[in-house]
């Protein structure tokens, strides 16, 4: 089914159309949620909320963007709402896994031995430092950077998801990069 048919089917109350939407975009939504929540179970829970919200607000989808962009926006907002609610309860988890991509680090595939262990420890320390720096970024900068660098979305799509201009997206990402660089340099000087 094409996206237009899916949308029209959902508007007509067709259960099969909603199932098609979920089947087609479930992986994308879960991945986006997981990038922010860093917990697969939480990401699955929030992704369900994303699809429920999409179902209930289908009449507000104007078709000016792709369905995937619309779902990205809902997923980002729902994930941030979830984090904000957890933060209020003082259970906020750090963004330690933000740049983690399991299986992509060749050092993680090799068993520790005397030569590799120090390099692996140093790399982990640098990752931890980066995570703390990212965690301290303002929300909009953190979101823009995550969508652009982790999800590899172009500025235009990040702008659509965040409902901002392309130039504002560029400014947010550049500010985030500069802030990260300053924080990393300052932290490395301490050591």
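-> sequence recovered:
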């Amino acid at each position: 089914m094409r996206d237009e048919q899916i949308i029209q089917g959902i508007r007509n109350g067709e259960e099969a159309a909603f199932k098609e939407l979920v089947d087609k975009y479930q992986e994308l939504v879960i991945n986006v949620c997981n990038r922010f929540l860093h917990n697969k179970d939480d990401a699955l829970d929030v992704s369900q909320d994303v699809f429920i919200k999409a179902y209930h607000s289908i009449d507000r989808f104007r078709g000016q963007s792709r369905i995937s962009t619309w779902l990205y926006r809902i997923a980002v907002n729902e994930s941030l709402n979830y984090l904000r609610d957890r933060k209020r309860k003082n259970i906020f988890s750090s963004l330690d896994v933000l740049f983690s991509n399991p299986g992509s680090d060749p050092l993680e595939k090799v068993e520790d031995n005397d030569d590799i262990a120090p390099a692996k420890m140093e790399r982990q320390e640098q990752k931890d430092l980066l995570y703390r720096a990212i965690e301290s970024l303002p929300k909009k900068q953190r979101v823009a950077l995550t969508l652009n660098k982790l999800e590899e979305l172009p500025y235009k799509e990040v702008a659509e998801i965040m409902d901002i201009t392309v130039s504002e997206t560029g400014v947010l990402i550049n500010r985030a990069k500069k802030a990260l660089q300053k924080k990393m340099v300052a932290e490395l000087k301490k050591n």
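The chain has nine helices and no strands.
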